Amino acid sequence: DKTSIMSRGALVVVEGVDRCGKTSQTLKLVESLNKRNIPAERMAFPDRTTWTGHVISKYLSDKDCKLSDEAIHLLFTANRWEKVEKIKESLNKGVTLVVDRYSYSGIAFSTAKGMNFHWCSQPEIGLPKPDLVVFLNINPENQKNRPGFGTERYETSTIQKKVTEIFHGFAKSEDNWQVIDANQSFDKVHSDMLYKIEEQIKNIANYNTPLQYF
Ligand code: TMP
Predict the structure, then answer these.
(1) Which three-class secondary structure state does DSSP give residue 35?
(2) Which of 44, 62, 112, 141 could form a disulfide with 162 if both were Cys (CB 3.0 to 4.6 A apart)?
(3) Residue 3: what pLDDT?
(4) What is the total count of domains within the chain?
């Protein structure tokens, strides 16, 4: 039967600081994959449409919204846990997921505020582990030249700088991370990402790689 020969979709995460082009690149990737007859969908964290997402959105946009660092950290994680069934279902159906931010953003932003890295990592244990993380690496000069920061919490250069350092640490220590030079043109960044993703999809099919968990 058809399902036994169809391989699962890839779990692909795109990480990077604000203004690196994550949103437009993830949208374009899904479009290009679909054009090549590779079923793909976009997902983004935080997902502001769920109950935890409403609180997260309020916290980010309203500085009078007082939640302890621990409470908001756990809400961001809960927001991912809410999606686990959906993630597994899509992957099992052969749909590749292109995810805008994931656990790494969760750990990086909270650690950038001064929280303990180990503590921040614990509630991610058991979540599906991305097959591939594409890190859009942009130099600060180029970041400055792109449309400005909004007014949400964390949109300050101090936080962004610390987050960048933490991402570079992940890129060095994690075997599933790939760094893409996001200072290149939109189209070049797109084709570099597409190449990595297609390579990953082929690997999963060739070796029948099971989904892993943190
Ligand atoms: P967004 O701009 O991609 O919607 O993300 C909103 C903010 O939330 C952004 O500053 C990064 C931050 N964030 C966390 O602090 N923890 C998380 O787990 C995630 C996914 C995002």
Answers:
(1) helix
(2) 112
(3) 46
(4) 1
Alpha-carbon distance of 118 to 107, in angstroms, equals 9
Task: Give the dihedral of Cα atoms 28, 29, 35, 41; nearest 10 deg.
Answer: -100
**Cα 110 to ligand 1 centroid, rounded to whole Å:** 10
Cα 148 from Cα 139, distance rounded (Å): 15
**Ligand 1 center from residue 155 Cα (angstroms):** 10
How much distance in Å is there from the Cα of 1 to the middle of ligand 1?
42
Strands of the sheet containing 40-44, edge to edge, are 40-44, 96-100, 11-15, 132-137, 177-181
> If DSSP codes are grouped into helix, strand and coil, which group holds residue 13?
strand
Nearest ligand 1 atom, CA 153: 10
Q: Which atom of ligand 1 is nearest to the CA of 101?
A: 20
Question: What is the Å distance from ligand 1's center to 180 Cα?
Answer: 20
Low-confidence ranges of the chain (pLDDT < 50): 1-4
Residue in 18, 24, 20, 52 with CA at minimum distance from that of residue 153: 18
Verify whether ligand 1 is closer than 6 Å to residue 43 (CB atom).
no
Which residues form the domain of 186? 2-213
For 73, the enclosing helix (H) or strand (E) is helix 69-81
ipTM above 0.90 for this complex: yes
Give, as one character, the DSSP assignment of residue 67.
Answer: -
CA distance linking residue 165 with residue 26, whole number of Å? 23
Write down the pLDDT at residue 198. 98
Question: Residue 82 is part of a domain; what is its CATH number?
Answer: 3.40.50.300
